[in-house]
């Protein structure tokens, strides 16, 4: 029986959807002197009530006659000795109501294995209070999922004053992510109190001192300073996690190890644990580890940074609790068990992303999805025989050249380090009416090819910066950007155009129009319509077109690929006979081109299509590996494809290795069905990710990744960022099977975007939230605890903590 009930009353207030059974609790922050958890109703309903157009309430109503407050099975955290005024009044009224909009609503599994809704107590009498609704076990997971989606659609309507049915999945997911982040800021603090765990607060960095606060009217751009903080001891325990109800997909035995950030190695925690994967709902999966005494569990998603180490027959993942992220390894008895587990995880990640059953995947795609991890590990343990002999001679010559250059640069290292920390912006980027508290910060970085300029978008302004031997200097600010009618534009996703003399922009609120800005005049001079096509992303028809007078550009919509020609004498500038539209929603998200005009298109589904020209079917379709693709770029010669996902980068060799088309590229010829595309999955190791996530309180989330780029230059380095960390990968190290082929540099604030200076991989231009900097890649270091998280005390308890 579907126990979510829909009502269509004729009254002024209409119940939209309801869950008829669950426990309702009040959660207090540690600032409160009262009990952390107070049960309000042992049996209650949770519903959404429509009060007006685009206006909804979340309503909790008492069902049973609750005359007493639960004591939580005698747990000292459950108390009725101090009931808040709000809760007491609500018990009399038998109803709590919360206005939807910015409620911070999200769902989670609690430590007892019960599905729980949590949100901010907006009617509470104490600061930072929250409430939770523990769903009754008799409610189906499908009904819970339906209720959750309805909440977020109602939140969307309340926020944007638009019908929720018109919102696409991406917009609803954005509301869900924002709601969860809003609530978790308070919930993490509450969880500390409930679990009785202590965590030291990070010391303020120089960027957040009182002196900086006095400079609030100045928007200076500066490089971060690294911070040293004292260290504590004793690794914190993980809270217990019960196994949620659902279908068991796999059960294996393994040894459990945890990464000790002080020792910087994995330490044995328990020898014999049960490892389970549970299907908890429609394409929702749970990873559980059950031992004595260890019990932990987490949603199975890319955010846990799942990584397989087939040499150790191990599965490594991150586990977050109370703002601490630990790295665990499950070491299986043999490679066979590890491979079996990898197959299960790969299937679950694919189904979770695509919302389709595994049986619908074609056979050849199944092999690619299931085998790529093993194939990557095999490739990482040997260099291709046919490449090794030639590469060794070339590498030795390059290394000798690098050593000579490093010796020449040693004398200037100190000067370079000082330079990379200097302020390189100008107050003229801002004005009296635009001060730091009102700004959302920098949004993007665009690096010129033709000249030495870089462009940083901030609100409806664009800052222009110049790079030279001495670093970067502020040049000018293009302010108050507007369209041809004088209406304000909030520029988004800028692209340099026609010998770097123009920028192509779009307004973040207008999906069907592009704007051409003349950089010399600092004004929009043309507007290009795209008809009914929503522009998701756009780029040059050939990789180096911005160095030429080429006028056409490419664009992708959620279901197609098209060319724009501004010379067309209509408002709609789309070239109709050079477009490719699909009947289904392909969810295209990004595109990249080679110097010969070959095209790669990535999607939110995680798949990639390769074209040799517009208007025809893709020559090659690369299946999804379980993460949406946010950005793609291609090497100039078309050999390498680089895809940016949230927590990983995909580096693909597009050269066909076997069959009659051997030696050609996947853009021009299809790969044989028996050949898997050689794919390297580039991740921050879970050990390093635990440092980063604990420091930032957020999971790994990569910015757009780029190759170094230059005319007749070979791509050999990759740069991206996550939070305040700039990260560089060496292609040589990747191909030499080094397990951690990356270096990092930490800044004081989050990096919005970073990219190489054109023509070199030695300098990286970095746009921080409020500053801009250029650093040498030599300043990037092999990551360790000093680079990643100077305050490793966040991982540890004090010596007198109770570990019994």
Descriptive overview:
Residues 210-221, 405-417 have a biased composition (Acidic residues). Residues 1-173 form the Vid27 N-terminal domain. This protein is an alpha+beta fold and 804 residues long. Among the domains are: 14-63 and 94-189; 247-390; 426-431 and 438-529. Helix content is 19%, strand content 34%. The protein contains 11 helices and 41 strands. The strands form 9 sheets. The chain has a 7-stranded antiparallel β-sheet. A hairpin with a 2-residue loop joins β13 and β14 (324-332). The longest helix is centred in the first third of the chain and has 27 residues, at 169-195. The chain is globular. The two termini are 45 Å apart. The relative contact order is 0.09.
The global form is globular
- Beta-strand portion reads 25-35%
Tell me the distance between the termini.
45 Å
- Which value, in Å, is the CA radius of gyration? 28 Å
Structural class: alpha+beta
Helicity, as a percent range: 10-25%
Strand order of the largest sheet: 4-3-2-1-7-6-5
Q: What is the makeup of the main sheet?
A: 7 strands, antiparallel
Q: Would you report the number of β strands?
A: 41
Number of helices: 11
**Mean of pLDDT:** 79
Low-confidence stretches: 1-12, 66-92, 188-236, 373-390, 407-423, 432-437, 798-804
